[in-house]
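Researcher: Re-running this chain for the archive, since the previous output was lost when a drive failed. Same request as before.
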Amino acid sequence: MRHTAYRLMALEQLWLHAGTRPRRRRDRGDVPGWVLITVMTAGLVSALWIFAGPALVEMFKDALSSATNKK
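Model: Regenerated structure tokens:
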């Protein structure tokens, strides 16, 4: 009888504190992978801007001038 009472008390304590205890997260993320993706994306955008930049600027100017009817 004594062991059963201790088990019930222990189960009750576990039940009461199950939602309040902070849980450890095992997945910390892949930080170097995300840094690599960010750097590679910035490199691709820079490389594309070198080649397509003048055309994009000209296209933007044409769009603005056609919207304001100025040439």
